[in-house]
């Protein structure tokens, strides 16, 4: 803790070091804390740059992916702030339950702060209990080091109280930055659960308005719902392309694109996605595929996969699989369900928002979450998935709880599942590689068997 | 939560019982409660009572709004939004959702049927009196294109005096309508439905907040519905007349130029208009005739089908449903989600963003399916604008 206190007393230091770093000034920092910071920055940017390189080197990246890579580069390697006008305030959000629409409606810019940094994780390891999930550790690590502008410039952080870790994280963040704890209902089967969330959102509005000084109006809310709706419209088109067999785009790239959504204004993001969609349409026409016919089609689900912790999707695609779908909260889920406005009044808009962020949400933090199984089954059917990788971050209990039911259900379908537990470090990478490789070989073998048996059947019939 | 539930039960259950009791009492003496009486000398305009009802309904709505504003203003959370929630300010609406499609068809059919059931004979010169639809299009209006069997249903004791052929026509057409149309009548043909949808659309246009019902409130409506059904079928046997409390009598004959004195029905119509302004299809939720048709939903040909795997339980259909049918989104096993309450309005399918998750079928043929593409089709305009913008920018760059 001494490290953080030290830093908090010297906010100007932050600036100095950044300037030094940017100017490639080699004059060595003096105090131990500064040296530690410098080391931290070097390491964090190096790791991010490495994964970004691997991402870009993964064959088959469309040209239109470039802006998304650039955003990740800006945020994680160059440690820049999000692209915005000078007086736009940033509101940090976590999870998928904070309505971005409300933040845009008051004129602020939402930034999703869930983190996947290995280096920050190592710092955070000392700040939170050992069994806490690595996501929290990484967030607290960045918070403590004060090197990421997106964390430091936040005018307000909105933390939905989803799992236990997020709850305690909200408390810890509150001691450092203005934080608002957004209560999410624990269940969603009864009407009052959703209605409770409407109330919560109404309570969130004054907090957001205090950040920018702008009041929310019907007009601004309707506009922001439309802006998000347009992003979701582009997303739905993108999803159609993802369903194509053979694949038109690698799943790792699709996940990077969804990660970039966290740091881009929604209009810009949907514009870029529109370009990507156009390119994919061209690819479809030219029959320019990124996968071969018999490549195993894998889907990833479970704990969030956040840049730079994209080792598992990378491993899947580097060992011969093709990632066709993801059911994770940093992936497709955050933009999949549209806001369905059924009542044109202000309250109607608020209700539709509350509805969209609770009822269809497949986050396992809800008491009853059987719909996630159905969603995964539907995705398996839509994307013709042959195997499911169930990603569990160490300490992410809620996802681990749901593994058993999923395994049983998919067992009935005959779709193999592998549970992959990992942490925010690179120590387990070889072990993961072996397991995933074996899994993919298994699918290939299974595929071959079915092909042979089919062939035999047709021969017998013939 | 449990405490508040108990409290609510303490308030709601007696209220519902009182409403049912008052309804029964009032209906017995409905003939004595005069709303507007035409003299025997045939003076006055037929439309006058309708205008009075409209005026009183508007006054009632304004009063309700004023009252709610007063209540909301003192609320610690909601007080801040009192103005925004009852806003009459012009402003953009959410444009991303589909504007035309199945719902346009429904509106056209509803308007067509509204006029056919009021002026049909005048236009075509001839009606089809032999067919009797179970519908609240008042049969006192003789200009209807198709007769309504609601009068016979409300006066079942008169069946005794009828000839066999008349009874046959009545029962036959009733059964036929239940099988072929079912509550499709409610969603597409009923003039009362159109009036309620119009008041609802007025509210949407003014962007005034409505009343959002939840499952608890819907369940409280059930006793009222049953009471009304009992009154509808049984009042004639105890010497009453359901027409005296039926709100449908106020519209159809008056518009066609028939002078009908109104009793309790005039007040009922005011309640229906105010109710449907704040709660979509308020009367349909307690309509005895519709429920009677709905009871035969198992043999009806119009059905709502669901693909339980494709459903994400987003609840959009439930939010959109004017009848508050929750099973439509919680159902995970049956492929058929038609219930007695469903009025086949198609709102759930219109608002469903999942491909083929919901569909309406007629005799097994799915003629209207949910689709994400059409659901989001409102965004196509935006996309075109974006394309133009990009092209312009590229041109500028190349120059």
List the helices and strands and how they pair.
The complex is a heterodimer of chains A (462) and B (399).
Chain A: H1 2-9, H2 11-22, H3 32-57, H4 66-77, E1 90-93, H5 100-105, E2 109-112, H6 118-124, H7 134-145, H8 149-152, E3 154-161, H9 164-174, E4 179-183, H10 191-212, H11 218-242, H12 251-261, H13 266-286, E5 297-302, H14 311-318, E6 322-327, H15 333-336, H16 346-358, H17 370-383, E7 387-393, H18 397-401, H19 403-413, E8 417-422, H20 429-461
Parallel strand pairs in A: 1-2, 1-3, 3-4, 5-6, 5-7, 7-8
Chain B: H1 2-28, H2 48-73, H3 82-85, H4 102-124, E1 128-133, E2 146-148, H5 150-154, H6 164-180, H7 184-189, H8 191-206, H9 215-234, H10 252-256, H11 264-278, H12 282-286, H13 288-294, E3 302-306, H14 316-320, H15 327-330, H16 347-351, E4 358-362, E5 365-369, H17 372-375, H18 380-398
Parallel strand pairs in B: 1-2
Antiparallel strand pairs in B: 3-4, 4-5
Q: How would you characterize this protein structure?
A:
The complex is a heterodimer of chains A (462) and B (399). Chain A is of the alpha/beta class and 462 residues long. Chain A has one domain (35-461). Chain A has helices at 2-9, 11-22, 32-57, 66-77, 100-105, 118-124, 134-145, 149-152, 164-174, 191-212, 218-242, 251-261, 266-286, 311-318, 333-336, 346-358, 370-383, 397-401, 403-413, 429-461, and strands spanning 90-93, 109-112, 154-161, 179-183, 297-302, 322-327, 387-393, 417-422. Chain A has a 4-stranded parallel sheet with strand order 2-1-3-4, with helices on both faces. In chain A, α5 (100-105) links the parallel β1 (90-93) and β2. The longest helix of chain A has 33 residues, at 429-461. Chain A is globular. Chain B is mainly alpha-helical. Chain B has 2 domains: 32-74 and 102-300, no CATH class; 301-377, Alpha-Beta Plaits (2-Layer Sandwich). Chain B contains 18 helices and 5 strands. Chain B has helices at residues 2-28, 48-73, 82-85, 102-124, 150-154, 164-180, 184-189, 191-206, 215-234, 252-256, 264-278, 282-286, 288-294, 316-320, 327-330, 347-351, 372-375, 380-398; strands at 128-133, 146-148, 302-306, 358-362, 365-369. In chain B, the strands form 2 sheets. Chain B has a 3-stranded antiparallel sheet with strand order 3-4-5, with no helix packed on it. In chain B, strands 1-2 form a two-stranded parallel ribbon. In chain B, β4 (358-362) and β5 form a beta hairpin. The longest helix of chain B has 27 residues, at 2-28. The mean pLDDT of chain B is 86. At the A-B interface, α10, α11, α13, α16 and α17 of A face α8, α14, α17 and α18 of B.
């Amino acid at each position: 803790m001494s490290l953080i206190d030290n830093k908090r007393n010297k906010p100007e230091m932050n600036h100095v070091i950044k300037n030094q770093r940017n100017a490639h000034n080699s004059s060595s920092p003096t105090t131990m804390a500064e040296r530690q910071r410098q080391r931290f920055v070097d390491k964090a940017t190096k790791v991010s740059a490495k994964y970004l390189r691997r991402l870009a080197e993964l064959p088959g990246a469309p040209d239109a992916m470039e802006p998304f890579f650039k955003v990740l580069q800006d945020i994680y390697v160059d440690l820049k702030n999000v692209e915005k006008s000078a007086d736009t305030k940033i509101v940090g959000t976590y999870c998928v339950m904070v309505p971005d629409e409300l933040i845009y409606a008051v004129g602020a810019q939402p930034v999703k702060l869930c983190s996947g940094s290995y280096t920050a994780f190592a710092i955070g390891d000392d700040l939170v209990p050992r069994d806490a999930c690595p996501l929290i550790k990484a967030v607290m690590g960045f918070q403590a080091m004060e090197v990421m502008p997106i964390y430091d410039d936040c005018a307000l952080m909105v933390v939905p109280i989803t799992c236990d870790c997020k709850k305690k994280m909200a408390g810890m963040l509150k001691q450092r930055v203005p934080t608002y704890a957004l209560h999410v209902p624990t269940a969603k089967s009864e009407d009052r659960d959703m209605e409770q969330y409407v109330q919560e959102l109404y309570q969130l509005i004054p907090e957001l308005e205090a950040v920018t000084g702008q009041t929310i109006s019907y007009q601004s809310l309707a506009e922001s719902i439309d802006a998000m709706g347009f992003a979701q419209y582009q997303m739905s088109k993108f999803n159609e392309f993802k369903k194509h067999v053979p694949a038109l785009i690698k799943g790792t790239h699709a996940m990077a694109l969804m990660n970039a959504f966290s740091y881009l204004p929604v209009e810009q993001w949907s514009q870029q996605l529109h370009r990507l969609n156009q390119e994919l349409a061209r690819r479809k026409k030219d029959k320019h595929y990124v996968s071969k016919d018999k490549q195993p089609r894998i889907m990833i689900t479970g704990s969030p996969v956040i840049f730079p912790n994209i080792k598992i999707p990378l491993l899947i695609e580097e060992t011969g699989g093709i990632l066709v779908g993801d059911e994770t909260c940093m992936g497709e889920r955050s933009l999949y369900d549209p806001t369905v406005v059924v009542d044109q009044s202000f309250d109607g808009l608020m209700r539709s928002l509350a509805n969209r962020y609770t009822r269809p949400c497949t986050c396992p933090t809800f008491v009853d979450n059987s719909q996630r199984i159905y969603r995964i089954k539907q995705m398996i059917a839509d994307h013709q998935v042959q195997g499911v990788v169930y990603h569990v971050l160490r300490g992410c209990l809620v996802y681990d709880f749901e593994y058993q039911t999923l395994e049983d259900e998919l067992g009935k379908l005959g779709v193999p599942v592998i549970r992959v537990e990992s942490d925010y470090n690179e120590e387990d990478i070889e072990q993961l590689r072996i397991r995933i490789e074996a899994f993919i070989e298994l699918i290939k073998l299974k595929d071959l068997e079915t092909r042979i048996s089919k062939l035999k059947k047709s021969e017998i019939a013939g | 939560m449990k405490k508040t539930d108990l409290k609510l039960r303490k308030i709601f259950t007696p209220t519902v019982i009182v409403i049912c009791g008052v309804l029964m009492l009032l209906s017995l003496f409905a003939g004595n409660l005069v709303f507007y009486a035409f003299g025997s000398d045939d003076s006055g305009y037929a439309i006058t009572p309708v205008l009075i009802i409209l005026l009183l309904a508007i006054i009632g709505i304004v009063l309700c709004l004023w009252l709610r504003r007063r209540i909301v203003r003192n609320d610690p959370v909601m007080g801040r939004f009192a103005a925004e929630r009852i806003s009459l300010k012009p402003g953009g609406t959410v444009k991303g959702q589909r504007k035309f499609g199945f719902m346009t068809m429904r509106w056209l059919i509803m308007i067509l049927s509204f006029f056919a059931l009021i002026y049909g004979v005048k236009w075509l010169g001839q009606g089809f009196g032999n067919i009797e639809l179970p519908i609240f299009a008042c049969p006192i209006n003789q200009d209807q294109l198709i007769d309504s069997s609601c009068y016979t249903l409300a006066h079942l004791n008169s069946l005794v005096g009828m000839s066999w052929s008349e009874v046959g026509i009545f029962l036959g057409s009733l059964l036929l309508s239940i099988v072929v149309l079912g509550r499709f009548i409610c969603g597409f043909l009923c003039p009362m439905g159109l009036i309620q949808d119009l008041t609802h659309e007025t509210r949407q246009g003014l962007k005034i907040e409505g009343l959002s019902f939840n499952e608890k409130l819907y369940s409280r409506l059930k006793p009222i519905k049953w009471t009304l059904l009992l009154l509808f079928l049984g009042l004639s046997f105890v010497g009453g007349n359901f027409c005296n409390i039926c709100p449908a009598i106020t519209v159809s004959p008056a518009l066609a130029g028939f002078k009908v004195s109104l009793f309790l029905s005039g007040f009922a119509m005011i309640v229906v208009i105010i109710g449907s302004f704040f709660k979509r299809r308020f009367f349909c939720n307690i309509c005895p005739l519709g429920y009677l048709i709905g009871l035969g939903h198992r043999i009806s040909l119009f059905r709502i089908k669901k693909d339980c795997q494709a459903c994400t339980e987003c609840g959009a259909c439930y939010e959109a449903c004017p009848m508050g049918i929750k099973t439509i989104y919680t159902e995970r096993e049956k492929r058929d989600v038609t219930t007695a309450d469903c009025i086949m309005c198609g709102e759930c399918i219109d608002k469903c963003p999942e491909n083929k998750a919901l569909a309406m079928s007629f005799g097994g043929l799915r003629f209207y399916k949910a689709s994400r593409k059409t659901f989001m089709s409102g965004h196509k305009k935006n996309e075109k604008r974006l394309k133009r913008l990009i092209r312009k920018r590229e041109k500028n760059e190349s120059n």
